[in-house]
Design a protein that fits this description.
Length: 332
């Protein structure tokens, strides 16, 4: 972790210093272009050699000990990570998670490297299949030809170069170009003049980034509260529906209760009220002999514990005895 932090600091500091130096020549080495078809070579004088097989690269570059690789559009995938610039090690970790979660590729079958595009869009990473670039790198290394840079092209423009740390993953040590101490010496000489401006600029951007982060956190927190409330409401609704469904399955249909009552009650008996609540049946009505109702109901497999809830009385003007009864309804 500490080593990665130091390397991230070195990448940032050397990048800031490099911006103050004259840009290097872009066409001082031949460029091997990896396209969907066979390879092509663009020479520093503007000429171009088309349709080269991998085995022919060594002969074509026999007088050029150093070259660059250019991967054409369609031979790589570019994915955006965040809207803010990230250190290389942090961007590498995030790109690994994104690769596993959102792409069909495994880390052992592709190169995934954070890049900064020339258009200024930060925190993207490129996915390059090993089967695309490894055969060219191996052929050049076998021929003793070193690879200076690996770039990505979209349409006719070069949009990004792989960082040096990414280049170490793709190109073996025997095929890499080792830079001398020229840049280090120039950086050390210039550091005394620009270090204050560099750190001042860094702290200014850091403050702006913190302000933007605080705003984003406040918005995300509010969104999270809203989403949580919605999820809680959905959970309550789902729980209520599940309880209702379970009770419906457990409840005995009223029609079955009514049919059983009709079978058990003797002729000449009738009901004036019937209610069923959580397995308790309450009925009232008239019968020639209310006491004679208990026996048939006890014999029923659907009812149990029949009992009168009020005294049996005779109502003037009515035939038979008035009764009120309660009994349990059970499943067969």
């Amino acid at each position: 972790m500490f080593t990665a932090t130091l390397r991230d600091f070195w990448d940032w500091w050397s990048g800031e210093i490099q911006l103050l130096l004259p840009p290097p020549a872009l066409n001082d080495q031949p460029c091997v272009e990896i396209t969907r078809a066979e390879a092509a070579i663009s020479w520093p004088n503007g000429s171009r050699t088309e349709a080269l097989a991998i085995d022919d690269l060594a002969n074509a570059l026999s007088h050029s000990p150093v070259c660059t690789l250019l991967i054409a559009e369609g031979r790589y995938i570019l994915r955006r990570m965040t809207a803010s610039a990230l250190p290389y090690s942090r961007a590498k970790d995030i790109s690994a998670v994104d690769l596993i979660a959102h792409t069909p590729y495994r880390p052992d079958e592709v190169y995934f490297t954070p890049i900064t595009s020339f258009d200024g869009s930060p925190s993207s990473y490129a996915i390059i299949k090993r089967t695309v670039v490894d055969p060219y790198v191996a052929a050049l290394a076998k021929a003793g030809i070193r690879i200076k840079t690996i770039s990505l092209r979209r349409s006719s423009d070069v949009i990004a170069c792989l960082p040096r740390r990414a280049l170490r993953e793709v190109v073996p040590k025997s095929a890499r170009v080792f830079y001398r101490s020229r840049m280090i010496a120039a950086a050390l000489c210039a550091s005394a003049l620009v270090i204050a401006l560099t750190f001042g600029h860094a702290f200014f951007r850091y403050g702006n980034a913190l302000s933007a982060l605080d705003s984003d956190i406040a918005v995300k927190r509010q969104q999270a509260v809203s989403v949580r409330a919605t999820l809680n409401q959905r959970a309550k609704t789902a729980s209520a529906l599940e309880i209702a469904r379970r009770r419906k399955q457990e409840e005995i249909p009223v029609t079955a209760v009514w049919e059983e009552i009709s079978r058990r009650f003797p002729d000449g008996s009738w009901l004036t009220d019937l209610s069923l609540d959580h397995g308790i049946l309450t009925i009232s009505g008239f019968a020639q002999s209310a006491a004679g109702l208990i026996g048939p109901l006890e014999e029923s497999a659907l009812f149990s514990e029949p009992s009168f809830t009020s005294p049996i009385v005779r109502v003037p003007g009515q035939t038979g005895e008035h009764f009120e009864m309660r009994l349990k309804v059970v499943r067969e």
